[in-house]
Write a structure and sequence with these properties.
This is 4-hydroxy-tetrahydrodipicolinate reductase. By secondary structure, this protein is an alpha/beta fold. The protein is built from seven helices and eleven strands. Helix content is 34%, strand content 25%. The strands form two sheets. A six-stranded parallel beta sheet has the order 2-1-3-4-5-11, sandwiched between helices. Strands 7-8-6-9-10 form a five-stranded mixed beta sheet. The longest helix is centred in the middle third of the chain and has 16 residues.
Length: 255
Amino acid sequence: MSSIAVAVVGAAGRMGSQACAAVEAADGLELVARITSGDDVGARVRESGAQVAVDLTVPSVTEANVHAILDAGAHAVVGTTGWDDASRGRVTEHLDRLNAGRADGQGVLIAPNFGLSAVLAMTFAAKAARYFESAEVVELHHPDKIDAPSGTARHTAAAIAAARADAGLGPSPDATETGWEARGADVDGVRVHAVRLRGLVAHEEILFGNAGEQLTIRQDSFDRASFMPGVLLAVREVGSRPGLTVGLENVLDLS
């Protein structure tokens, strides 16, 4: 069985360098390009023959990178946050154009978090959300992170909000009249709080409350090595999923 040829975009970064090492050590994968800032992403992906390109860069360039990867004929796995409905919509439109009339179209998998514990926490939270009157999310990261709230927290809150809406629940009770800036970001009606503290890597607490009870789901990533099994899983799976997939939970058997 031939290996999957993989390019890593953002290869000089902390996540990128670990991803390169993980791909090199993995069975059935071959690292064919380390792409860094200043490189022409599309040209490097095309000339390397990469079948899958992993984007681990920064929010300001990740969408352009994905479009370049698609135009170069490769699938894209994306760990960079900063995506919204508009940017995801543009990628979907691009994929629709490329995949029209094809049985084996290109795929993009955007993973707000590659940590398996984080994906499970998000999944458990979405299942619990319908049973609680109140829900809030706290995300805690290192102070070098440039976006807030994190993509993981936004993805978690959106899933909680969708589950609450499906269950017919209204907004969480909140009598706040002043000082709304202290109540965190509003993500689809769920409050999300961001902490930036030296010594942290990536952590999330999902809090649910009813009268007389509380459920806390806590996930901790202490080292970026914890993200690598998810990266490798995404690389292996994206080629079998034409179109846009958001969330690693969609390639795990969590039924």
